[in-house]
Amino acid sequence: MGAVTSSMAARFAFFPPSPPSYSVAADESGGKLRITDVAERDNVDVLKLATKRGTQIVAVYMRNPAASLTVLYSHGNAADLGQMYELFSELRVHLRVNLLGYDYSGYGQSTGKPTEQNTYADIEAAYRCLEETYGVKEEDVILYGQSVGSGPTLDLATRLPRLRAVVLHSPILSGLRVMYPVKRTYWFDIYKNIDKIPLVKCPVLVIHGTADDVVDCSHGKQLWERCKEKYEPLWVKGGNHCDLEIYPEYIKHLRKFISAVEKSAHLRTDSGLSIDSENSRCSTDCRDKPRSSTDQRERSRPSMEREMPRHSIDRRERSRSSIDRRERLRKSVDHSEKANNSTDQPEKARNSIDRFGDMMRSVGLCNIDCFKPTGAGV
């Protein structure tokens, strides 16, 4: 029965980039591993980790000397470490965290095949590395799961009672529920997040786009409703499945969340920091409702934040929307320049645009049909 489940998972859940976007090489002087075809960064370790299921996965650990918390990031479908590398580097800086990202079995240069059970073993190996190699404590870890990555993220989160926090980015209720509006959980379903989320004991932030045409916004809403410790969610108005990072509210809300959990070892809903019940409401079809986020209360003052670069975008919409998104980024950065009186802000804004351009040239595109069975319509 388990084999059948794994077979179904491989059919409609996993689409590793082919060929991989990167290679792993060893320096001639000392043998230190590095990822090719990406910009060299300081304080980055490239690792090969053995899993309990016999595969070897590739991971990157990015240090931030000012960090007190560490993010363990499980990326989405149709992506690998080479495509995520620049985003990870940006998150490390903007969120002031250490970050460990990894490739699932069968993704990038990781060995084996992608299956549901393998991804559980993959994230366990990554977490064990944080504990044993870097001395990171459970209470200082934030698990971040994007799309398919919400599966291994929630599975591990249910087994870590002292975990600091969880971020769910465009999460799924379950694999089957992405394709069909089923009302119950079947034995052959995969990533049964809907059943696991109530078991998570730490604060949970849910981020979802209202125009997500791969995993409907209602998935994020239902998971948020079932959280034991809710943090104010972010419904990104107009956001799709693979472009939330380019919206300025994305990084603002994440920074607020990180700051909140950094100040409290165990943030609770009655603390006054976690929920804005009025702004957090979302209809069953979130596409029909405007975004509600903390940023709505800040619109009266100029934004001082730069947008995060995006790591992927829908192939079908690239020619139509990339120019508009670049223009939005330019306007946001220009607005930040005018609002800030410091002498170094214009230079920082220009650097941000340069990094965005580098990322656009280096990353691949997300396959938004990643959950569709072979032969299914879009």
From TrEMBL:
It holds the Pfam family Hydrolase_4. It comes from the Eukaryota. Residues 70-175 form the Serine aminopeptidase S33 domain. Residues 274-283 have a biased composition (Polar residues). Residues 274-350 are annotated as: Disordered. Residues 284-338 have a biased composition (Basic and acidic residues). Signal peptide: none annotated. PANTHER family: ALPHA/BETA HYDROLASE DOMAIN-CONTAINING PROTEIN, ALPHA_BETA-HYDROLASES SUPERFAMILY PROTEIN. This is Serine aminopeptidase S33 domain-containing protein.
